[in-house]
Each structure stands twice: as C-alpha cells, then as structure tokens.
Design brief:
87 residues, 60% helix, 0% strand
Length: 87
C-alpha cells in the first residue's frame, strides 16, 4: 500500500528509489562485500599476531611499512561503506 505522504500525485506505481531490484543495486552490494573481503584479513591478522599463530604485522612490514596493510584495510572499508550505503 502506498502512503499518500510518500506519493502526493496519487500514482499507483512505486517510485524508482524504492524499487532497486536493478543492476546498480546489485553491483553496489557486490562492491560492499568485496570491500569487506579486502579488509577482513588485516583485521583477523591483529589478534592472530598477538596469540603467536601468525607473525605480527610489524615483523612482516616493519613500522614504516604498516601503511600498506592500513591503507588496504581503509580502502576496503571505504569500498564497503559505498557499497552498503542506502539513501
């Protein structure tokens, strides 16, 4: 049922913003999952490095090289934020 406040003209068809079954929504959601997939290994590496199951990031990248995994994690989270954003 369409609310009169949402549709002041009285049209019976749904607005395009609410009907996002198209390819754009699917591609954005796919980009969101891809972003999480990029960021997740770096988030899992931190507790695993503390427990000693994997070498810590500082031993692998060095202090200056920590920009590499930090940049990849931030890029993945930004991509996920764009992909899962709903207007």
């Amino acid at each position: 049922m369409i609310n009169k406040a949402d549709n002041p003209n009285g049209d019976t068809k749904a607005s395009p913003a609410r009907n996002e079954a198209g390819g754009k929504s699917t591609l954005l959601r796919l980009a969101g999952w891809l972003g999480l997939l990029v960021a997740a290994p770096f988030f899992l590496w931190i507790p695993l490095g503390f427990t000693g199951l994997v070498p810590p990031m500082i031993e692998v990248f060095g202090v200056v090289g920590l920009r590499i995994p930090a940049g990849a994690a931030i890029a993945g989270l930004l991509l996920a934020a764009i992909g899962f954003h709903e207007v």
